[in-house]
Amino acid sequence: MEQGNDTQLSEFLLLGFSENQPQIQPFIFGLFLSMYLVTVFGNLLIIMAIIVDSHLHTPMYIFLSNLSFVDICFTSTTVPQMLVNIQTQSKVISYANCITQVYFLLLFSVLDIFLLTVMAYDRYVAICHPLHYMVIMNTRLCGLLILACWIIGVLNSLLHSFLVLQLSFCADLDIPHFYCELNQVVHHACSDTSLNDMVIYIAALLLAAGPLSGILYSYSKIVSSIRAISSAQGKYKAFSTCASHLSVVSLFYCTLLGVYLSSAVTQNPHATAMASLMYTVVSPMLNPFIYSLRNNDMKKALKILLERVTRNRPMDLPS
């Protein structure tokens, strides 16, 4: 892409996982299609179960339904484009689509991070201040927290996308990845990227390390409160309300950390792509299983939902 008012938009090539092994492309297509369908179906089940069961109309499950919606969008930003490229045997993604993909990837990843942080705060209030839970976590506060997550995500995505649009790109537009990852796109520019690098670094500190600190602080208080409970049954009950969320947080941050460690330690782009696969595809796919298998209330809601569907009974949606 050349600088100037009559700039010609470039096309990027997403090399994916097997540019030198076309014979395994059908296997990769089937694998990613299956994972995508499981992700969408599983998270939709979570959302529908929460909508149908009035007992789940609490802050914890309102945040969970939003997380499931974001996970569907997160995966939908990358996998369909990859499936199209495999099916058409084309690695091309247009400049406009690449920038759009960067924007939505940043948006939904930040939403994931902040929703997990808000859910940690919800568990902190529920366990450390149980008598004041319904007063503190009222509907207005829940709405404001979700709105704040979206505002922060949108502003962050707009900032990075705007800075990428200021870059000029030369001939080397091969991205060894299955989607337009921000660092990869920025480092393929032939203009100065120092401002982009600085903003990426600052945003990572504020929007990833900051919320993680909040989650760790919340759980340090939760652990202290649980230790103060005298009965073993009470301790187990208190911890069980956090187990699913803690599992999702661990999965998300471990895979996210793996992406950046692999890119920093190794120069092998395929290792980074595999780590990114865990972060963008596997984690959203596993979240519904973690919440449904470790949560009795969710199991009951899913059972009610499936019974209504199999009996072709109309679902009594709340007014």
TrEMBL record:
Gene Ontology CC entries for this record: plasma membrane
An annotated Gene Ontology molecular function: olfactory receptor activity
Protein name: Olfactory receptor
PROSITE patterns documented for this protein: G_PROTEIN_RECEP_F1_1, G_PROTEIN_RECEP_F1_2
Location in or out of the cell: Cell membrane
Organism: Mesocricetus auratus (Golden hamster)
Membrane-spanning segments: 27-51, 63-83, 103-121, 141-159, 198-217, 238-261, 273-293
Record keywords: Cell membrane, G-protein coupled receptor, Membrane, Olfaction, Receptor, Sensory transduction, Transducer, Transmembrane, Transmembrane helix
Protein's UniProt keywords contain Transmembrane helix: yes
Domain of life: Eukaryota
Family: Belongs to the G-protein coupled receptor 1 family.
Any Pfam family hit: 7tm_4
InterPro entries xref list: GPCR_Rhodpsn, GPCR_Rhodpsn_7TM, Olfact_rcpt
Subcellular location, principal: membrane
Topology in membrane: Multi-pass membrane protein
Annotated G-protein coupled receptors family 1 profile domain residues: 42-291
